[in-house]
Specification:
Helix content of chain A: 25-40%
Number of strands of chain A: 18
Number of helices of chain B: 10
Largest sheet of chain A: 7 strands, mixed
Shape of chain A: globular
Helix content of chain B: 40-55%
Oligomer: heterodimer
Largest sheet of chain B: 7 strands, antiparallel
Strand order of the largest sheet of chain B: 1-7-6-5-4-3-2
Number of helices of chain A: 13
Order of helices and strands of chain B: HHHHHHEHEEEEEEHHH
Structural class of chain A: alpha/beta
Radius of gyration of chain B: 27 Å
CATH superfamily of the largest domain in chain A: Medium-chain alcohol dehydrogenases, catalytic domain
CATH architecture of the largest domain in chain B: 2-Layer Sandwich
CATH architecture of the largest domain in chain A: Alpha-Beta Complex
Largest interface: A-B, 47 and 30 residues
Structural class of chain B: alpha+beta
Number of strands of chain B: 7
CATH class of the largest domain in chain B: Alpha Beta
Number of domains of chain B: 2
Strand content of chain B: 15-25%
Shape of chain B: elongated
């Protein structure tokens, strides 16, 4: 089959590789009909995620048709159309029982490695480094899906792939970030980053009852999407001082909750940004937490800072005093996708949201490397790339 | 757990045996290795910070350093040495076990001494200052060599197969965990190095292990303690090529959250078997038992061990990234 493989920093290539096989009795093989490039894939692309190996098949947003099932699979059968959640979860451990699926204790064969870096290991994730299991990903013609009875969501209505594909990651990810804000009527929510996850966080914040959402980015078309398709107030951090503007918009109090939908490769201005770029380049800091620092400082007293952006290692100059003295709450985590798939599909069915609104580019799987390059450089007003095998 | 070790000193009844590595048991059940680690850590920690401090001084105030050491004309060199010191220091502090970084300090010391030696032959006026600096560097060199030797020795002792311990929490009852484990023929399902365990009745069993390169190790074992739902202990029979003891304890976790499973194992071997045993254990024997326990948890909770072996990748070489670091 054809599969998009990580070669080295800034280098992906579509290779012909063997088809995946059933390796565990609870596996299914899915013939992929649509897959996508996630913003977090760019962290792999730019070489910021440790433990990638040349040849690893990437991709964790995919859906398709079940073509084979292992002998212990009972809920899925050949021919079922499914969306696959990006974390791999056993459904039986302490965390899966608590519906904290991205913390599954059994799905990361390399848990001992993650424990060395992070203290404890989260769940395995498709195509997202050996630290997170080293599972072959879904930017391919076929994928092996472990614990097939636990993860994949059957799609039995007439929706198109593009309308349901994002249940695999970015729609639940944006939603969980907004849900973590514990939104009350009248709340103002600020969202850093208007990439695909930011767009879903903005939409979800409104769905959950926010009165105002303030969206922060510097890319005009992304701000326009937030403004025109979701009704957000937008701030371009190239043009305005974000902290000042947020104070002005909230009478000096600050937003009730702040969402970081940016993560480890944030952009910014001035000496602090230069400091982070330099430290990251010298491997003295793995992540640039520019958006996160600002989100903390901006948040109102007693508010929530919700982190959906991906961080990998260590950050510097965290305004921890601000966090502590002002009773802020931090909520974060890889998305517990399984928990949200069905209720969020219901919202699609009820016509509350059509997740395909973020798509700007449709490419063939063979053109995945070009898609990465374009998405990474934000060329051609690229916001979201879907790939067709 | 220590008492169980004391009750079943399988290795000791057979006279001195070569154990892989050099750690020995002390009375309180702690190995000498553990006791030494703290002092070595303190030493290398101090050296790491010393490196950074000196390096910063050299980079930021090379003139002052030059004046103190009596090497006035070489501020550029001193600045370069400062960068080297900082790199060594960061390396030491971030890689606590990396002997290479500590040895890099020894190399740096030699450079310093050589440079000071050169300065001494050239400048007569600052001779006494330079001499003093050389003496200080020589002192530090002694410390560096000591630390490097200690860290290198620790690395070897890491390979010991003595008292390998691990624990894990399993979302099943102690009885279920016990029953699965007590059926010894199940062990190869999660102990990756075992090819088979055959129950020969009367609490005796025959174990076959496979080391990389298809090297076989076999031994007979007997159960020495068996409390249903609580604990199982075993040891190899006299005359086996591998001498091993092991025990597992199943403790009901607080709040009805399943079972805490604690395992302790030791391995030793004589003659030719020793090389095969060392291969079996690999570079990180302490990880071996822990990884096995994680697999035990997977089997108990999900019914199987999850794997990625045999999945596709676009690699020219078949080796996985894990192969390169796991062994």
């Amino acid at each position: 089959m054809k599969a998009n493989c990580w070669q080295s920093k800034k280098k992906m290539s579509v290779e012909t590789v063997p088809d995946p096989k059933i390796l565990n009795s609870q596996d299914a093989i899915v013939k992929i009909t649509t897959t996508a490039i996630c913003g977090s894939d760019l962290h792999l692309y730019n070489g910021f995620v440790p433990s990638m190996q040349q040849g690893d098949i990437v991709g964790h947003e995919f859906m398709g048709e079940v073509v084979e099932t292992g002998k212990s699979v009972s809920k899925l059968k050949v021919g079922d159309r499914v969306v696959v959640p990006f974390p791999i979860s056993c459904g039986k451990c302490f965390f899966c029982e608590k519906q904290m699926y991205s913390l599954c204790e059994n799905s990361n064969p390399n848990a001992w490695l993650a424990e060395k870096m992070w203290g404890h290991s989260p769940a395995g994730i498709f195509g997202y480094s050996h630290l997170l299991g080293g599972f072959a990903g879904g930017q391919a013609e076929y994928a092996r899906v472990p614990f097939a009875d636990v993860g994949p969501l059957k799609i039995e209505n007439g929706f198109t792939d593009e309308q349901v594909l994002f249940l695999s990651d970015i729609y639940p990810t944006g939603y969980m970030a907004a849900e973590a804000c514990d939104i009350k009527p009248g709340d103002t929510i600020a969202v850093w980053g208007c990439g695909p996850v930011g767009q879903f966080a903005i939409k979800s914040a409104f769905l959950l009852g926010a009165e105002r959402v303030i969206a922060i980015d510097k890319i005009p078309e992304r701000l326009r999407m937030a403004r025109e398709l979701s009704g957000a107030i937008t701030l371009n951090f190239d043009e305005v001082d974000v902290l000042e503007s947020l104070k002005e918009l909230t009478g000096g109090r600050g937003p009730d909750a702040c969402i970081d939908a940016v993560g480890m490769e944030a952009y910014g201005h001035g000496p602090v940004y230069a400091y982070d770029r330099a430290k990251q380049a010298m491997m003295l800091e793995t992540d640039r937490p520019i958006a996160l620092r600002e989100a903390i400082l901006a948040c109102r007293n007693g508010g929530v800072v919700s982190i959906a952006g991906v961080y990998g290692g260590f950050v510097d100059k965290m305004p921890f005093g601000s966090l502590m003295n002002r009773s802020l709450t931090i909520k974060t985590g890889q998305t517990h996708v399984h928990r949200y798939m069905k209720p969020l599909l219901d919202r699609v069915e009820r016509g509350e949201i059509d997740p395909s609104f973020v798509i700007t580019h449709r490419l063939k799987l063979e053109d995945a490397p070009h898609g990465y390059d374009m998405f990474n450089n934000k060329e051609n007003e690229c916001i979201k790339v879907v790939l067709k095998p | 757990m220590a008492t169980q070790w004391e009750t079943h000193p399988g290795a000791r009844t057979m006279g001195p045996l070569p154990v892989v590595g050099r750690s020995t048991l002390t009375a309180n059940g702690k190995t000498n290795r553990q006791a030494n680690t703290a002092t070595t850590d303190l030493l290398i920690n101090s050296l790491g910070w010393f490196s950074i401090g000196l390096g910063l001084a050299e980079v930021l105030a090379p003139r002052k350093v030059a004046k103190i050491t009596g090497a006035r004309k070489h501020t550029g060199l001193i600045r370069a040495f400062g960068v080297r010191e900082i790199i060594s220091g960061v390396g030491i502090l971030t890689n606590r076990r990396a002997a290479g970084w500590v040895w890099s300090r020894v190399g740096g010391d030699m450079l310093d001494l050589a440079s000071l030696g050169a300065a001494m032959t050239r400048s007569g006026r600052n001779r006494s200052k330079t001499l003093l600096s050389a003496a200080a560097v020589a002192g530090v060199t002694v410390l560096d060599i000591r630390a490097a030797q200690q860290v290198s020795a620790q690395k070897e002792e890491h390979d010991a197969l003595d008292r390998l311990e691990a624990s894990v929490i399993v979302n099943q009852s102690p009885e279920e965990c016990y029953t699965f484990w007590r059926h010894l023929e199940n062990l190869p399902r999660f102990m990756s190095y075992l090819e088979s365990v055959r129950d020969m009745g009367n609490g005796r069993s025959h174990w076959v292990a496979l080391a990389p390169g298809n090297l076989k190790l076999e031994w007979d074992a007997e159960i020495t303690e068996d409390k249903p739902g609580q604990t199982i202990a075993w040891r190899s029979l006299q005359g086996s090529e591998v001498t091993t003891t092991g025990s597992v304890e199943f403790q009901k976790a607080a709040g009805n959250r399943g079972t805490i499973v604690r395992v302790q194992m030791s391995f030793a071997a004589r003659g030719q078997a020793l090389a095969r045993l060392a291969k079996l254990a690999g570079k990180h024997p302490e990880q071996m038992v822990y990884k096995d326990l994680r697999r035990f948890k997977q089997v108990m909770e999900t019914g199987e061990v999850i794997t990625t072996e045999g999945q596709p990748a676009g690699r020219t070489s078949g080796a996985t990234w894990l192969d390169s670091i796991a062994r």
